[in-house]
Write a structure and sequence with these properties.
By secondary structure, the chain is α/β, with parallel strands linked by helices. It has one domain (about 10-260): Vaccinia Virus protein VP39 (Rossmann fold, 3-Layer(aba) Sandwich). It has ten helices and seven strands. Strands 3-2-1-4-5-7-6 form a seven-stranded mixed sheet, with helices on both faces. The chain starts with 15 loop residues before the first helix and ends with a strand.
């Protein structure tokens, strides 16, 4: 069946099990309810340089960790998501925190943000890009551009890097097979909920998508993985080297970051 222009991944797909047992960072969330965050959230938070009294929007706020962190820095934070389950989890984690009076939660579709022009100093869009069809993504980026203040910053993280899936993963799979570990040909089969990734990116495609919405853009690759699960220290060293050293990082690093300025 052909996809209609107004279709999205159904919000019902994003279950409590997805957020609490699958979505990266769930271990830290279980332990701290947002007080401690993984590198994929810590890096964007540092890039945002949030100051007291800033207005911050988290598009696709999920469990609400960024909202907690922004409010702890004195910002007024709004979480926006279309998955009711996500907002329920976020409300649970925020309710008992002393920063809760600085946080609001809104339900809606990011293609039509219910906020005035030039309203937010910072917008986060973390691990959302890959969940939006191309037309949805363009509409969402355009809406974010509208609600950002002049010189405001949009901080993006997305994964996977399609260059890794196409070029790096086949080599990784061969090496693992030589070690007696058999991985599926499709890298998406290694993880739960593969159906929610409908628009995976690489540095060039992400740059173009942000530029098309009117942003000044910087896109780069930076690994957030520790590879601590790899028991062999030599293999672990090689994995860390491949995701950091040019030109190998272009096809082995799986995390994309972007700063987009209005």
């Amino acid at each position: 069946m052909k996809r209609r222009a107004d279709d999205s991944v159904p919000p019902e797909v994003y279950t409590r099990e997805y957020y609490e047992s699958n979505c990266q960072g769930y271990v830290e969330f279980r332990q701290s309810r947002g007080a401690t965050i993984p590198a994929r959230l810590q890096i964007p938070l540092e890039l945002a340089e949030i100051a007291a009294d800033m207005s911050v929007l988290d598009v696709g706020c999920g469990r609400g960790e960024i909202l907690v962190q922004a409010a702890r820095r004195g910002a007024r934070a709004i979480g926006f998501d279309y998955a009711i389950v996500a907002l329920g989890i976020a409300l649970e984690s925020i309710a008992a925190r002393p920063e809760s009076d600085k946080i609001l939660i809104h339900l809606g579709n990011a293609r039509r943000l219910p906020y005035p022009d030039n309203h937010f100093d910072r917008v986060f869009m973390l691990d959302v890009v890959e969940h939006l069809y191309p037309d949805e993504l363009h509409q969402t980026f355009t809406e974010i551009w509208r609600v950002l203040c002049p010189s405001g910053r949009l901080i993006v993280h997305t994964m996977p890097n399609t260059w890794y899936y196409r070029l790096g993963y086949p080599w990784f799979r061969i090496v693992q097979r030589l070690r007696g570990k058999h991985l599926p040909a499709n890298p998406r089969a290694r993880w739960g909920y593969p159906e929610v990734h409908v628009n995976e990116q690489n540095p060039i495609s992400l740059y173009r998508a942000l530029r098309a919405a009117g942003f000044k853009v910087k896109v780069w690759l930076r690994s957030t993985q520790s590879y601590a699960e790899e028991p062999n220290k030599y293999v672990r060293f090689a994995m860390r080297a491949l995701v950091t050293i040019y030109p190998f990082r272009w096809i082995f690093c799986n995390d994309l970051f972007a700063i987009a300025v209005k």
